[in-house]
Predict the structure.
Amino acid sequence: MFPNSQVAITGGNITYAPGGVHNHGFCNGFDVLSKHIVASAFHNSGDSFEKPKCHPNTRVAILKRITDWVEDLEREHPILWLHGSAGAGKSAILQTIADMLYQRLLIGSFFFSRTAPARNTHKHLIATLAYQLAISIPETRPGVIQSVENDPTIFEQSLEAQVQQLIVLPIQNISDILLAEPTRHPRLFVIDGLDECQHLGAQYEVLRVLGAAIRAIPFQITLLIASRSEHCIRNAFRQKLLRQISSSMLLDHSFNPDVDIASYFQSQFDELRQQHPMGAYLQNPWPSEQTISTLVRKSSGQFIYASTIMKFISSIRHNPCERLDIVCGLSPRKRDLPFAELDLLYSSILSNVEEINVVLEILGLLISGITGPFLPSMPAKFGAKLAFMSPRFIEAFFNLQPGDVSRLFVDLGSLLTIGSDAERIEIQHASLGDFLMDKSRSQEFFVDVGDACALMAKICIGHIGSDIQHIFEVEAVLASFGSMGSIFEHANPTAELCSLILGFHIPSLTRRNHDPSHFHKKMWIYLPSLLYSISSTVRI
């Protein structure tokens, strides 16, 4: 039952109990409205028993900052955008906020879901919010229902028309009442997972029309939106109107997620000890502090990693010690799928990438630099000019056009941090490399590190043999890898690579150089590594 209302929602069923407003038109209009809503998108729907919520005593600073913003009637920005990488816990935060503020400040909510047909589209968004508005602020009901009765086709009209008729006008009609007692009425709309709305143009339009609506409403309505940092949504918030009335909150390491994740792990392992059939047989302490620290580090501040592996370890049909060993890589997986939920997340994100083969080649370079011993950081003297693994570095290395990296990775903003062209690209999930390098998990997105190194070696040879005017770029590339020998050592001995190595013509470099002494000073030190590569790579 909504507060101050005669409407009850049980699961997906809506029941109207007369007694508040005895108006035949209201009942008819309300019936029409109710047929265009998605009750499963409410924060308190019975659609799922496993709605993500913040674990007790975690995310305290974030939750306080958001609730303070909602309660502040003097706030400068009525829209707050909570954004972060995939699996950072955005939905859990908004679910918790909606639960906390439901009885006094929440007007309504809409939780998008990519896998739910009615919740992965914008078509039912405004009707669903208007329905909750009519219930949470009863004074708006006549206006909402009147709009429906005046034009029952309103739900087939543009988002702008729907917002104007079903939300803006009903609130404007009672603005005197709302402004007289501003603290007595709810004032918060919550929209979660906007990036999971299938139509990119609709994501932009939702933000545009809701921004205009809030600007037109005299009462202090607030809108809390959570999404990944996708290009379309970032671009919308850069537009003049939204830029003026919105602020953003990035879920990054400034909120110390590692502390919260460690607390979550400790609490979950304590609960497992009490509730698991084998709990009494577990060693004490178990697991070790070192193991928990390792799990926290692998989480990379992403709660989805922590929750996924805890579901796996806590299975009552399995030995938790053995399952923890599987997660830590100490035992083979057999048929177990410890990272199923995480793998689905990564696969769904990568499936949206158009030029996936090129992107996977670049990801091979990035994850090799993170997980392998053969790609140390660039020397500081060169890193001051161009960071290793920056967009410009990658574009130069792969012979791409300026701006290609930003274009190719436009759909991966929730997995990677891409700053300026000269700044190093950072992978936000330490577990992404594990996923990509395990063919049983990544399937068509599998990255073979041996093949990746073979490609790097081939490109290095191509750079060395290119026009001598690029001598300094060649030196930088080789210096960034530290030793060509180690790249070749890890490379798969493809026929093409072996042919390139055996056919490499060292004297051709000196003929292109007008100053042989310059060649000796700048390049000769790399040739032993190249010669070594013949013995380490050509294993035929």
About this structure: The chain has a mean pLDDT of 82. The longest helix spans residues 257-275.
